[in-house]
Each structure stands twice: as C-alpha cells, then as structure tokens.
Write a structure and sequence with these properties.
Number of strands: 9
Order of helices and strands: HHEEEEEEEEE
Radius of gyration: 15 Å
CATH topology: Metal Binding Protein, Guanine Nucleotide Exchange Factor, Chain A
Low-confidence stretches: none
Strand order of the largest sheet: 3-4-8-7-6-5
Largest sheet: 6 strands, antiparallel
Shape: globular
CATH superfamily: Peptide methionine sulfoxide reductase
CATH architecture: Beta Complex
Number of domains: 1
Helix content: 10-25%
Distance between the termini: 32 Å
Length: 156
C-alpha cells in the first residue's frame, strides 16, 4: 500500500510546502537555546513549567518556528500531565505523526507538517469523543488571541 501523498495546501487553506534547510535555519536564528533544543532536537520541556500550560484565553496555538496553526483553544483540556493538552488539531493536515522509539518505549511523535519542528507526542488516552491527547511543549507553540492571525513563514 502506498503512503498517502502530503498535500501542498491543507483542507483549511494553509501552505504546507516544506521549508528549505536554509530558510529553516534562518528562522531558527530567532529561537532561544531552549526553543532550539525542543523544536530542532526533539527535546522536552520540564512538566508544569511551560508558559502556555494554564492559558485559558480564546485563540489559536501556532508553530513557534513557521506560524502554521496547530490547535484551537477550544480543543485544550486539563490532562494533569504538566503539558498543554488538546483533543484535536486545528487541521489534521498540519500535524505529522512519526513513530518514536526513543527512551525505551514506543510513542507517536508529532511534528509541524511544514517546518518539521518537534511539537510533542500524541496518546490514545484522552477524553471523549476523540480519545486523543496531543501533549505539547509550550516552547513549540506561540499563542495568538482570538482575532489575531499568526504570521505565515512559508516556503520561498
């Protein structure tokens, strides 16, 4: 069975063309060392320390590196895990799922479809109706209050 081709535009109308290495490196220059460790090197921030964990405002959570919308505030829930958790993505096309066999376990890593930044992991122990728990690092995302759109840093 052939893998499903990755669309160049998501169902919600966002450009999904991958960023080139030079463009990704240029955007990464603005990242802090901690953001770089998590987004570019699959790190994890400490639990209960992320700046977006207790955010209850209405809006959109977007990729810190490229601005692709990842999650809507109304999909966020308190999981008790110490990381921001969501039941479903803004658009399923915006999230890439990858098998992660690090640390002696098998998990599903989630990455930004456009820039390949590490976001966190997804588990099947979330609330109904999706039963999905997208567990994110705060440093992987930037929050945009309702009415503000994230700047899109697309492939050039």
């Amino acid at each position: 069975m052939r893998p499903k081709p990755v669309p160049t535009t998501s169902a919600s109308g966002y450009d999904l063309r991958p960023l080139g290495t030079a463009q990704r490196d240029k955007l990464a220059e603005a990242l802090s060392p901690e953001e770089r460790r998590v987004l570019l090197h699959q790190g994890t921030e400490a639990p209960f320390c992320g700046t977006l964990l207790n955010n209850k405002k209405d809006g959109i959570y977007a990729c810190r590196l490229c601005g692709l919308p990842l999650f809507k505030a109304d999909a966020k829930f308190e999981s008790g895990t110490g990381w921001p958790s969501f039941t479903q993505p803004f658009d399923p096309d915006h999230i890439a799922e990858i098998v992660d066999e690090s640390h002696g376990m098998i998990r599903t890593e989630i990455r930004c479809r456009r820039c390949d930044s590490h976001l966190g992991h997804v588990f099947d122990d979330g609330p109904r109706p999706t039963r999905r728990r997208y567990c994110l690092n705060s440093v992987s995302m930037e929050f945009y209050p309702a009415g503000q759109a994230p700047e899109q840093k697309v492939a050039s």
